[in-house]
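Quick one, tokens below. Sequence please?
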């Protein structure tokens, strides 16, 4: 009987239409006598069931009936149970079972309270010890191992409706809780669910058990499932992982048994036994630890392995028979044996598939498996054995391997992913055909970490190519540049990997199989275009939005890293678009939507490539920067300053005569002051009134060519007289009244100072410096007519350029400002300019 059966029981009020209800397998006459006064009219029915159970019968099934439940006993007799007070009101009872993971379940509703169980004295009456579930004052309470906690779920019930719960201490039993018709005088009765364990035996083919040991002295590192022991501790290898037992009855639940192996003295063998598990059937749907055949598997492991363990085995267990003990009354014969062996050397271990034919010729094959017969391969160790006549045989080497796991060789990672291969230790499973090379990593019985390279594994069957679809990356903006070496754009490819290679496995597959090509097809308004690089959606001359194919925009597209370096495999993070020089000639920058297309194709298992996958990359091509536009043309610097072209002693100019770089176009729509100047398509500019000499006029809409495209620029034109000069002198020139201090003033650019205190310069109309060697005379006066000599200051020029300024020595009380008139002679021209010098007084 199993918990599935118990889950079907919904006890009603304890009324039996033909015979009986539940009692325990022990004598419950006292219980029945007590119940006689509490539950009217059911003594005879209880006695009938009790009689059956005392005969060794047990419950085998419960099924729903029209008025309640039908209980079938092991001898086939049935009892009908109806619910409600006096069997009339149809009130359902409540079932309490235990889920697969050990939680209480109420009428199919799983709770969050674990059925931990607590041992109690069941006594001679067979009553349960610690109650696990109780119903008081209209509420349910569950024992959580420490205290009762209220459960607020479940259906409402009345006090006279009995309920049952599975005994968490021993699921071979359930506990029935009954009341009188008024919900008082609760009584708990323990119910058997099978006939009890009668016999246990170890099957002959598994009664010999082996454990190997070696004192570990190595320091190797290991990343397998089983960690290596510490230096000096014992390393255990177990050829015997489990053994098989058979029990009678077959349906007995072994989950609560504490099995142990003992010798004839009752001494327990130095091993740890696991809980018995059914040898056949899907464990995931077994509600109790029962086996339809009565055969169970018991795991065995070493226990506290030490020198004392070895000595105890030598003294008490070597060559001694062992018995498997289930309880005080049930044990197996002393037919089992335990062999503990010290390992001092390990033979050569082979991880490929070796065998000898009838001619004693050694063959080495890779592991192979037809997928039609199963998709699993176990890579197993072997060792060579030489018989007395020197013939070689290969045997399992499990006893010489402590731990092992398989990894894919780098060359097979992509194929393993395509074929749906998974690895668990040394077990390899596949969904599609593949030829693989694997590496076996293992630790032998002496603790030595080893590696077997190039082990071949083959699965035979068809291959299903991965499906891909077209993909669009996020929009990107490219700043066009005039440097042809920098006419490239990096595009983040991470969104693609998120969809198609978002984990290590799929990325490995992509790395191995992806190829970037320029051979895709794009459909535009129903027409298929092949090998196009981009499309341009824009407004045509009629104002309609059209999409045009573009063939001269992209030179190449490459896989790259984030820095634009061309890379492959797992270093790929971006696409690097290299544009043709000056971005071709088709697209007007910043006018319309540009989409660049990359195409990826994936290699299939047969070595051929699947159809291409189109990657759409929306790109905004921005105009070149103002700096790049400005760098496309230049004027003669002797006449051009502060974006103004100055023309001397004339009222008309052909601008192109002053352009030293690039070509300016005047044939587009221009804007300027047409009342003061005129500009024609040849770039001729004329001043319309001479009274405006010296004034600047801006002309916009002139065009220069950058990247093969025209861009508007603007500049000013000024017509001026060549007689215009400017003297620039620092405003802070200052000397002491007694001549104790002097000022050194250097001629030249104001931004330089080669040891002189100040700098000054003389420039022409265009701000161009008059070189010192062009000045043939420099004198200083106290008046603008240059007739009155200086009296307060003594100014001495050095080669008509550098000045030394100091006072004449007359002492004054207060600061005074002296205006100095400088007379320059440049060629045949005489220029007079003034500047101020402060003479500081004594006060």
């Amino acid at each position: 009987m199993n918990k599935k059966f118990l889950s079907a029981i919904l006890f009603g009020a304890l009324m039996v239409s033909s015979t009986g209800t539940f009692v325990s397998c022990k004598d419950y006459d006292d219980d029945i006598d007590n119940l006689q006064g509490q539950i009217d009219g059911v003594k005879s029915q209880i006695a009938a069931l009790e009689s059956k159970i005392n005969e060794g019968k047990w419950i085998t099934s419960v099924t729903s009936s029209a008025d309640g439940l039908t209980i079938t006993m092991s001898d086939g007799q049935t009892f009908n149970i109806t619910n409600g007070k006096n069997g009339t009101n149809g009130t359902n009872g409540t079932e309490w079972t235990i889920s697969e993971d050990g939680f209480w379940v109420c009428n199919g509703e799983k709770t969050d309270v674990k059925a931990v169980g607590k041992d109690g004295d069941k006594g001679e009456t067979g009553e349960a010890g610690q109650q696990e579930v109780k119903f008081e004052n209209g509420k349910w309470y569950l024992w959580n191992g420490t205290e009762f906690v209220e459960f607020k779920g479940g259906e409402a019930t009345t006090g006279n409706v009995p309920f049952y719960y599975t005994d968490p201490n021993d699921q071979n039993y359930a506990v029935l809780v009954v009341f009188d018709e008024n919900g008082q005088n609760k009584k708990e009765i323990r119910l058997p669910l099978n006939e009890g364990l009668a016999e246990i035996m170890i099957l002959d083919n598994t009664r010999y058990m082996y454990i190997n040991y070696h004192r570990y002295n190595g320091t190797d590192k290991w990343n397998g499932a089983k960690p290596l022991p510490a230096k000096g501790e014992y390393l255990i290898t177990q050829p015997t992982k489990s053994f098989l037992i058979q029990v009678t009855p077959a349906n007995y639940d072994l989950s609560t048994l504490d099995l142990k192996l003992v010798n004839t003295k009752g001494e327990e063998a130095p091993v740890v036994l696991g809980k018995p598990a059914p040898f056949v059937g899907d464990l995931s749907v077994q509600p109790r630890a029962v086996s339809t055949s009565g055969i169970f598997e018991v795991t065995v492991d070493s226990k506290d392995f030490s020198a004392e363990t070895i000595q105890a085995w030598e003294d008490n267990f070597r060559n001694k028979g062992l018995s498997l003990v289930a309880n005080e009354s049930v044990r197996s014969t002393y037919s089992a044996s335990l062999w503990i062996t010290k390992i001092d050397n390990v033979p050569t271990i082979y991880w490929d598939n070796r065998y000898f034919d009838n001619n004693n010729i050694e063959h080495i094959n890779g592991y192979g498996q037809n997928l039609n017969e199963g998709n699993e391969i176990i890579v197993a160790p072997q060792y060579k054995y030489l018989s007395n006549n020197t013939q070689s045989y290969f045997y399992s080497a499990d006893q010489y391997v402590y731990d092992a796991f398989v990894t894919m060789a780098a060359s097979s990672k992509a194929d393993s992913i395509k074929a749906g291969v998974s690895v668990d230790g040394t077990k390899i499973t596949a969904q599609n055909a593949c030829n693989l090379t694997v590496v076996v990593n293992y630790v032998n019985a002496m603790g030595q970490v080893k590696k077997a390279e190039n082990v071949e594994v083959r699965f035979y069957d068809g291959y299903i190519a991965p499906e891909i679809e077209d993909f669009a990356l996020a929009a990107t903006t490219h700043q066009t540049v005039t440097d042809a070496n920098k006419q490239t754009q990096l595009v983040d490819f991470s969104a693609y990997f998120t969809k198609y290679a978002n984990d290590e496995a799929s990325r490995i597959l992509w790395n191995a199989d992806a190829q970037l090509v320029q051979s895709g097809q794009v459909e535009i308004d129903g027409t298929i275009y092949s090998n196009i690089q981009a499309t341009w959606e824009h407004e045509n001359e009629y104002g309609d939005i059209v999409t045009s194919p573009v063939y001269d925009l992209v030179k190449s597209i490459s896989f790259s890293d984030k820095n634009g370096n061309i890379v492959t495999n797992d270093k790929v993070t971006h696409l690097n678009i290299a544009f043709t020089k000056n971005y071709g000639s088709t697209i007007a920058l910043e006018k319309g939507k540009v989409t660049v297309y990359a195409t990826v194709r994936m290699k299939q298992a047969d070595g051929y490539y699947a159809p291409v996958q189109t990657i759409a990359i929306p790109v905004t091509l921005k105009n070149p920067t103002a700096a790049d536009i400005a760098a496309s043309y230049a004027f003669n610097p002797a006449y051009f300053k502060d974006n103004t072209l100055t023309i001397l002693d004339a009222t008309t100019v052909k601008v192109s005569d002053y352009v030293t770089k690039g070509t300016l176009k005047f044939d587009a729509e221009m804007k300027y002051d047409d009342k003061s100047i005129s500009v024609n398509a040849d770039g001729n500019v004329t001043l319309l009134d001479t009274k405006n000499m010296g004034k600047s006029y801006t002309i916009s809409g002139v065009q220069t060519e950058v990247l093969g495209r025209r861009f508007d620029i603007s500049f000013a034109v000024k017509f001026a007289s060549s007689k215009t000069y400017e003297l620039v002198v620092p405003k802070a020139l200052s000397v002491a009244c007694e001549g104790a201090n002097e000022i050194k003033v250097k001629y030249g650019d104001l931004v330089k100072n080669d040891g002189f205190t100040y700098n000054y310069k003389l420039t022409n109309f265009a701000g161009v410096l008059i070189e010192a060697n062009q000045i043939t005379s420099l004198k200083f006066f106290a008046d603008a007519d240059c007739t009155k000599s200086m009296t307060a200051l003594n100014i001495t020029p050095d080669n008509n350029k550098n000045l030394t300024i100091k006072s004449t020595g007359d002492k004054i009380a207060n600061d005074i400002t002296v205006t100095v008139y400088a007379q320059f002679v440049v060629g045949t021209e005489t220029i007079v300019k003034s500047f101020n010098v402060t003479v500081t007084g004594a006060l």
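The longest strand covers residues 449-460. The first helix runs from residue 3 to 7.
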